[in-house]
Every structure is written in structure tokens, then in C-alpha cells.
Amino acid sequence: MGRAVKLSLFIFCALVLAGCASAPxxxxxxxxxxFDEKNxxxxxxKKATKKWRVPIATNMAIMYQESGFKNTAKPPxxxxxxxxxxxxxxxxxxxxQAKDETWDWYKSKAPHWGADRNDFDDAxxxxxxxNNLSVKTLKIKPSDTxxxxxxxHEGHGGFARGTFNSxxxxxxxxxxxxxxxxxxxxxxxxxxxxLNSWWPF
Length: 201
Hints:
Largest sheet: 2 strands, antiparallel
Distance between the termini: 44 Å
Order of helices and strands: HHHHEEHHHH
Helix content: 55-70%
């Protein structure tokens, strides 16, 4: 096999593996299946929870709602005249859908200067960090996924002002996130011992 052919095959395989690594999990409704499929995700999620004291299930449920576990997720574009693609609604990007300014704030305060929004370990740490701030600033219980999601979506100032009260759709979404977190926690209770046997530290 020629050198050029070998190089082409190597590049092709690398691209395929990279695509598989960044693709969303196949079974997003079961957190045990997610962690079984995505090597390293449980370790990263557990590390973030240990650091910021917010449950794995809550952080993962928020991530699912924000991006569907898509590492390059972006908000939809606005439509000009109903059909011409315009600018995006915000600079939100990646697993956590963090905006540019919020991500920069996280990198300086966490601190985590090398963090990337399209890396799972950085994104799950960001979500847990932000939830921890909500717990401290807004006196929300770490287990209160409903209010943590409202604070995540509206920001701490918006939550304190009660901006979500006029958004029935957002409160309905927060209930869905809370229900997903409860399901994730029930599932995790059944498989976490096994997952911990893989990652003892």
C-alpha cells in the first residue's frame, strides 16, 4: 500500500473516530446508557459534582435541555421577511449553551482559562459551577432542579426579579427538566456502583 494511501486512510479513520466521539448519545433518556456509551463522561460529571456540590442528574438534565448533548449546538437563526436566514438570537454555543460573556466570566472566576464550550468535561463543569452560584446567591437548594433551571435560563438577576413568572412556556420547560433529573437520578441509583467500580478516584 502506497504512503499516500496509508495517510489518506489514517486521516479518514481519525475523522470518523472524531465524529463518533462528538456525536450525541444514542439513548438520551437513560443516564446509565449515556455513561456506558460515552467513555469518560461519568468521570467528568462526577468530578464536577464533587467540586461544585450539585447532583450529577441535575447537571445532566440541564445539559440535555440546552443542547440535546450536541457539542456544537447553536441557537436558531432569526428569519428576515419570514424566510431569509438572519443573525442568531444569541452567542450561546456548545453543550451548555453558554453565551460568550458568561463563558468568559466562568473562565476567569472558576478559574478555567483553557475551557472550551464544545468539550463535555468543560461544559459539565460550567453547568455545575453556575448551579453552585445559584445555590449560594439565590438560596436555591442543590436538589431543586426546577428553580436551578429557571436561574440558569434567566440568569441570577432575572431569577431574582421573577422574570420567569410571565413565561408559562419556560416554567413548563423547567418542570420537564426537573422530571428528567428525577428519572436520571433513579436510573443512576441502580448503576452508579458499577460506574464507580470503573472510576475509583
